[in-house]
Amino acid sequence: TFRGQVTLDGPSGTGKSSVARGVAAHLGAAYLDTGAMYRAATVAVLDAGVDPADADAVARTVAAARIEVGTDAATELVQVDGVDVAARIRGVEVTRAVSAVSAVPAVRRQLVDQQRALVASAGPVVVEGRDIGTVVLPDATLKVYLTASPEARAQRRAGQLGITAPDEVAVLAADLRRRDEFDSSREDSPLRPAADAVVVDSTDLDQQGVVDRVVELATSTV
Ligand code: C5P
Asked: What EC identifiers does the entry list (predicted)?
């Protein structure tokens, strides 16, 4: 049985979440979606009427918010101050503002502390995000960095949203690019593979193929 920690980092639209859930289910491990925590923090910021670009106000607002996420791969629990925001965190408004909120160092410190505490009490776990292998869990058993071509990522996201019109797919592709550039170029904990990460390219693999590959890596490293 698997007893370690798997980190799964990479840009948007690589199928990270589905893969992370699949791997967790396969390994009988807990699952932590750290993107959901930054998205929940963004809900708190928007609901307070705070400008996501105002770092001080963002930091204060998130510090005062109670952000809760579950660690069970089968159910999605995301709450802000006791209110279920699981559906809202996937909306365009939150998606547009989340990179600005997650670039605020005080927000990162708060959520990283919370992530480490959740992991400490979770046992075997799969943790998904951008900086898990580099910052949150530098001693993880297995670090995976998931990539895919920009076209494959835009197509995957379009499929999830039921979008087929080429001009709408192009808008999605532009949004993915904008968010990744922002996440990769920020000062604090930029998106990049850890030095000891295994890079898995999902462009030509289906979801099950990626899950199988990560499970194989996880069970052979322990
Ligand atoms: O993975 P997801 O698309 O839900 O992440 C949303 C945003 O949260 C990312 O674009 C990034 O700005 C931020 N994020 C982060 N660090 C993480 C996870 C997510 O900065 N560990």
From this structure: 2.7.4.25
Check residue 179 and give left, alpha or beta (phi > 0: left; psi -120 to 50: alpha).
alpha
With a Cβ cut-off of 6 Å, ligand 1 is lined by: 12, 34-35, 38-39, 98-99, 102, 129-132, 179, 183
Q: Tokens for 180, please give them.
A: 């990744």
ipTM, two decimals, is 0.99
* pTM across the whole model: 0.94
Which tokens in the block code for residue 123?
């046992």
As given in the structure block, the two tokens for residue 67 are 């952000």
Task: Report the distance separating Cα 45 and Cα 98, nearest Å.
Answer: 10
Query: φ, ψ for residue 219 (rounded to 5)?
Result: -80, -15
